[in-house]
Design goal:
13% strand; 17 helices; 11 strands; Amidase signature (AS) enzymes
Length: 469
């Protein structure tokens, strides 16, 4: 396999019996063996399971059975997703020997769709506080330059997709943990509407902010994965019960007349982005306008207010989720997570309630601002990827996040590559839709990707190059 196909490309070839799932899986396994010693995208590789899954997918295709677009597709699961009989460590010393008895709902749905499980991908510890170098496994590194960061916390999935080790994977997103790695690794990643994808069997971070979603090379691939993942699950008390549309039906229909609002002040005033990121945003707006979208200005509360609200809720809910271990095994957490758990434990009940109250106001503000819009656009990350050893210990508190507002609101948001900045590193835009309007978000993201050249450019990785970086 000289070139890594997208999920959509591989699905067509597999269905036509022109690509063997076993051959595709073996090629991905070879890339993992060659490249992952430098990338650390995987905490655990499941080669035997992958080959068994691939053989089962191939047998179904050859038998003429009706198979979906994920049949035979190699994927990774973030290592906070429970896998029956396979270690799920949350990248932590505390769960180093944890082997679940059941699968998470998202793992079941992807397995039922015929995917090939390549392994468990690296994460920040309990999806918080990375990159950490005081854990049993090293942090994942950016395939565009291994001296640089992936963002977190779905770091291994982002690196694995960008490097072509897997064609797609699961990420989780509490304040940007799908969209951050998607942006810095130059791939696509969508945080669905709160409640659309079940979180049952996935380790919690902050329960009212947590989302599960797909990460892949393109928005189209994310749509194919979301189709399998979305749906009500009684195991998740926040799971939404509503009809699931066809997320690919509108792809390719064009976006003429669609209404895009740009939150200029987020990325030009509240948290000014790098020159490369700004060029990517400006060019993306021009591309969308050329495709027939109408562009308007949107003004919301300052980004810092959204960030403060979400961060206080996140810190408090994380401290609640891990209260017992924080009391009995605090020293077994990484230093970064220890600090965050201690800070969260000191938030008063009054402050938490005030943050929840403010959250309702901010969500109502976004709803009103989007009443006559299809999506809003802003940055996904402030700049190109930092060097991995230069990420500040308190990175979450230094400057406001572009992704947190849409966890606060629970709205669907996707990060897609909008070009390349300093050092040839990816930059990205973020498109945000109304609740349960993922099909619209994906339609616009897909149109943008197909009108721009960025999906044709992958990291130039080889074992020699990786060793030299």
């Amino acid at each position: 396999m000289s070139e890594v196909p997208t999920i959509a490309e591989a699905a067509k070839l597999i269905a036509a019996k022109q690509l063997s799932p076993v051959e595709l899986t073996r090629a991905c396994l070879e890339r993992v063996k060659e490249l992952d010693p430098a990338l650390h995208a995987f905490v655990l590789r499941t080669e035997e399971r992958a080959l068994a899954d691939a053989r089962a997918a191939e047998a179904a295709v050859m038998a003429g059975k009706s198979v979906g677009p994920l049949c035979g597709i190699p994927i990774g699961l973030k290592d906070i997703v429970d896998t029956k009989g396979i270690a799920t460590t949350c990248h932590s010393k505390i769960l180093r020997d944890n082997v679940p008895d059941t699968d998470a709902t998202c793992a079941v749905k992807l397995a039922d769709a015929g995917t090939v499980l390549m392994g468990k991908t690296a994460t920040h510890e309990f999806a918080d506080g990375g990159p950490s170098f005081d854990l049993p496994w090293p942090p994942a590194r950016n395939p565009w330059n291994t001296q640089h960061f992936t963002a977190g916390s779905s770091s291994g999935t982002g690196a694995g997709v960008a490097a072509g080790l897997i064609l797609g994977g699961i990420g989780t997103d509490t304040g940007g943990s799908i969209r951050g790695p998607a942006a810095l690794c130059g791939i696509a990643g969508i945080k669905p509407t709160y409640g659309l994808v079940s979180r049952a069997g996935v380790a919690p971070a902050a329960f009212t902010l947590d989302h599960i979603g797909p990460m892949a090379w393109t928005a189209e691939d994310c749509a194919l994965m979301l189709q399998a993942l979305a749906g009500h699950d009684p195991r998740d008390p926040a799971s939404a019960s509503r009809p699931i549309p066809n997320y690919t039906a509108q792809l390719g229909a064009g976006i003429k007349g669609m209404r895009v609002g740009v939150i200029h002040h987020f990325h030009e005033v509240d948290h000014k982005v790098s020159d490369g990121t700004q060029r990517g945003i400006d060019a993306a707006i021009a591309s969308l306008r050329a495709l027939g979208a109408t562009i308007s200005e949107v003004t919301l509360s300052p980004l810092a207010e959204w960030h403060a609200c979400g961060t206080l809720i996140s810190l408090t809910e994380r401290a609640a989720a891990y209260e017992e271990w924080a009391r009995t095994r605090l020293g077994d957490f990484s230093a970064r997570v220890q600090q965050r758990l201690l800070l969260g434990s000191m938030v008063s009940g009054v402050d938490y309630v005030q943050a929840v109250r403010r959250r309702r106001e901010l969500r109502a503000e976004l709803q009103a601002a989007m009443a006559k819009l299809d999506v809003v656009l802003t940055a996904a990350q402030p700049a190109e990827a930092q060097k991995i050893d230069e990420v500040p210990e308190w990175d979450v508190g230094q400057k406001p996040s572009f992704t947190m507002p849409f966890n606060v609101a629970g709205y669907p948001a996707i990060s897609v590559c909008s070009g390349f900045g300093e050092g040839g590193l990816p930059v990205a835009i973020q498109l945000v839709g109304k609740p349960f309007q993922e099909a619209t978000v994906l339609r616009i993201a897909d149109a943008f990707e197909k009108a721009t050249p960025f999906r044709a450019h992958r990291p130039a990785l080889s074992s020699d190059l990786v060793a030299a970086q």
